Amino acid sequence: MRAKRSSLPLAVLFMDLDGFKDVNDSLGHEAGDRLLAEVAVRLNDCVREADTVARMGGDEFTVILAGAKQRKDVELVAQTIIDALALPFQSAQQAVQISVSIGISFYPQDAASPVALLKAADKAMYNAKDTGSNRMCFYPAVGSSSG
User: Fold this and answer.
1) Which residues are marked as active site?
2) Separation CA 9–CA 11 (nearest Å)
3) Sheet (strand 52-57) strand order
4) Residue 83 is assigned to a structural domain of this protein
5) How many domains does the chain have?
6) Using a CB cutoff of 8 Å and minimum separation of 24, what contacts does 115-120 make?
7) What pLDDT, in 10s, does the model give residues 40-87?
8) Which CATH number fits the domain that encloses residue 62?
9) Does residue 147 belong to any structural domain of this protein?
10) DSSP string covering 58-107, please?
């Protein structure tokens, strides 16, 4: 893990799109695929070039924020993502509205391995989902922030 070798902290944002299944069900998988591609573009627009955006599968994405030291900076990026994904997407048939639930974990304080870091962020994401849409939650869950 590069962060371990360089002793640099990082944050993992684990995201699940709220309302994506409805888009797939009502507009079809082709529209859903286009929406996922547009989500990826918006996510890339919210982060720095040094950061990483990845689709985990289905409607789940991760963002790795390299060198993330301050919780408030990570919270600002997460809120930027929430705001960007809350804007309507234009599908061929109509404007589509979705939202996102974000779980956040930090290396090294929350976990030392990549798998454990993803699990921690995933757990925090489910805590965010439990409190409603357009939310972020840090691991360990000590409450959530809304957008």
Assistant:
1) 59
2) 7
3) 52-57, 60-66, 10-18, 99-107, 135-138, 144-146
4) yes
5) 1
6) 117/12, 118/12, 118/14, 118/62, 120/12
7) 999 999 999 999 999 999 999 999 999 998 999 999 999 999 999 999
8) 3.30.70.270
9) no
10) TTEEEEEEET---HHHHHHHHHHHHHHHHSPEE-SSSEE--EEEEEEEEE
